[in-house]
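Structure request: TonB-dependent receptor, Sapientia aquatica.
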Amino acid sequence: MNTRTMKVTGLAAAVSLAMFQLGTAYAQQAGQPAAPAATDANSLNLEQVVVTGAPVGVTKMRSSISISTIDAEQLQLSAPISSADALRSIPGVHSEASAGEGNTNVTVRGIPISAGGARYVGFQEDGLPVLQNGDYAFVTPDMFVKLDNSLDHIEAVRGGASSVLGSNSPGGIINFITKTGQEEGGSVGITKGLGFKETRLDFDYGAHISPTTRFFVGGFYRDGEGSRNGNVPIESGGQIKANITHDFSDGSFIRVSVKHLDDQTPLNMPVPFSLSTANPTKSNPGTISAATGYDPRTASYYSPYWSSIVGVNSSGTTTLTNLNTGLTVKENALGLQGSFKLGNGWTLDENFRKSEKTGSFESGYPTGPTFAASAGTTYASGPNKGQAYTGNAIEVSAFNASFDDLGSTVNGLKLSKTFDVATGGKLTTLVGWDINNQHIGVTQNLPHYLLSATGDQPSLLAGLNNSGVQTNAAGLLPQSTWWGNQTRAIQYDMSSPYVNFDYEAGPLNLDGGLRRDMQKVTGAQTSATGAGTYAPGTFPALPDTPVSYSKDNNSYSLGGNYKLTSNLAVFARYSDGAAFNVVERMGGPFIGGSPIPINTVKQTELGVKWREGGFSTFVTAFKANTEEGNYDLTTRLLTQNTYTAKGLEVESAYRVGGFNISGGFTYTDAQIVSALDSTIVGNQPQRLAKYIYQVVPSYRFGDFVLGGSLIGTDKSFGDNQNSIIMPSYYTVNVFGNYQISPRATVALSANNLFNKIGWTEYDNGQGARSINGRTAKLGLKYSF
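Returned structure:
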């Protein structure tokens, strides 16, 4: 660990501990706002106080940001299979949710998805970032966020103040907020997969130890194969989260929290596909469809006939890794949180977390289309080992990445005071300081193997690949032990002071803020390339290259909200934010000592909020201009593009009696306005549809609750050349439960009920990825 990292980490820890020592001297404010109750008369809960993307707690009706909240009951209706899948029901959020429980691509409002991950959207747990950046190669924040009974609710901000109140999140912030025992009681439940092997146990319990002290504990454990049955037991593990809170008489609190995550799940990767046009162009595009032998909804590279893959660890030693471990994530975290009344109206808020994260990413990835196996090809594994093979073959890269160290130390400190001003209004000033120290220690290998071309339990083959290169007896292609081998040991230190003000006078709210992000990047990276290359482009061969550079940026945001009546408000905002590039996203051209360009996003928003009886709605017009540089791991292409997007976002809900319906619609007109490749200027950015929509109805009658969701998207292009069409699609998810006794409930849910194919990703002709096929689950829950 370098000196700067030690200083940043030590300072964050010292600040946090100092704040908690004040806990015995100062009283403090109660915990975070609870999720809205299902019985609230207004369906979007516009009077709910939100804490995400706002300098201080403010109601939705008075805020000048677009924010959605989703509680546990609302989540059930969309029957999500991952945290990223749950985000598909939020207006304005584009979540591809096709990779499983990690490696998901997420963005908002036409901001581009150029290389994967969540570059412009900050994932948070209880107000602190999960990872400093959302697009490290092989590492995305949704890997470490699991849905279970410990979740109280989700707050999702699009655009707006997230440029000032979070680093690397100019597009928005998605905050997963944990229960804290405010509501006493708990539950235990068991869920079984229908038609696939999965058993899961969920539990949670919260209670008061004394009138001023409460605790919560919750989590899950599971075991199985997952819905894409490769006949290997990949699903295994779970998490447990716990916290204890002490409330003081003046409404203040201190909280200690812990998290232990050790989970293993399959990854759903791109598979071979077919095109309606042999040589697609913009004027004659090709539409993606399924390839012979591969059902993209169920296809998997996991197989009992392909387990060991060769690699090289960070010490340079040759290793064998089990491909069938899939995505493994481990985290141990300690959190300290508090809010202290310092007297004379001053409040100090402190939020600290130290986490250790490790894991691995193991899955196959196609290098191109299938082809007829050459004469003399034999099975290299499985029950037919040594026998002749005469079907189609495919060359697959084994994505073998070890997360050696993803640990982080994060701290958020805020000092605020509300002043009465001469005009009769109130001015709230806030000074904040965020410290984030993120380690990225990743070793990646991409050896190439020859496999039977089947999406169900493929076998290794010994023979020639499509270029006439011979494998060894185990199906491994020569030189590919080192093909794409990279080792990174990078430390990202971010120190971010910021200021914000909020002025309230009668129906008017004005707010604005300025943030200074100061980043220091240190460490080293290496990259070795074998004599053969088996995919478009090459990885550069880099020796052990020191990394040392600094980069700073200023962000700001200004907004206003005016209540025309008690039920009608208008708002506007302009923001200038940034997302810092990570080292591996600039790939070959980076030599270690030059600062990497920062990606910037400038946004304008105009909106209206209205409610009448059980109906409420948000309508926001937006415009975003994005400038970014990028290096795509899968295509090995360097880009420097500028994008513009404008559109309209609508979120509405209606509640009457036992019936509730909510939904959203987002229209986006996005365009590439400049690029290194002049042929793509004027085109629609890849993977961004013109419109996405959500409809979520539910009805409660007696002991029954029935509901579901309809989530859909317009067609999009798989490439910036606009030559590949990914067709429009929709999914229907259903949920129903029956209360068989005052404490026991049985539930049935189905995700993608009609088993639709939904293409979300096209990777330069190598493969394409679809959402998962139909999954159904049956559960029994006992509450106490």
